[in-house]
Amino acid sequence: MAKEKACKKCRRIFETAKCPFCEVSESVDNFRGKIYVLDPEDSEIADQIGIKEKGLFAVRLR
Ligand SMILES: [Zn+2]
C-alpha cells in the first residue's frame, strides 16, 4: 500500500510521486487529520483552513 502524502502547496492528499493537481513534488508524510471537502463553499472547516476546491485534504501539515 502506498503511503499517503500531503502536498505542501495545496494540502491535497495523494499517493503518487507528486501532487497530481499542482505538480509540486514537495510533500509531507507527516500530517494531521484528513478532511474530505465535498462542498467547499458551504464547508466551515474548508473555509477555516483555506480550501476552495473539492477533494481530500490534510487538515494540518507538520
Ligand atoms: Zn498540490
Write the layout of secondary structure elements.
Elements: E1 5-7, E2 13-14, E3 27-28, E4 31-37, H1 44-48, E5 55-61
Antiparallel strand pairs: 1-2, 1-3, 4-5
Give a structural overview.
- By secondary structure, the protein is mainly beta.
- The chain has one domain (5-61): Single Sheet (Rubrerythrin, domain 2), CATH 2.20.28.
- The chain is built from 1 helix and 5 strands, in the order ββββαβ.
- The strands form 2 sheets. A 3-stranded antiparallel sheet has the order 2-1-3, with no helix packed on it. Strands 4-5 form a two-stranded antiparallel sheet.
- The chain binds zinc ion.
Overview in brief:
This protein is mainly beta. 8% of the residues lie in helices and 34% in strands. It has one helix spanning 44-48; strands at residues 5-7, 13-14, 27-28, 31-37, 55-61.
Mean pLDDT: 91
The quaternary state of the protein chains shown equals single chain
Low-confidence stretches: none
What class do helices, strands and sheet pairing give?
Answer: mainly beta
Radius of gyration: 11 Å
List the domain count as a whole number: 1
Q: Tell me, what is the CATH class?
A: Mainly Beta
Strand tally: 5
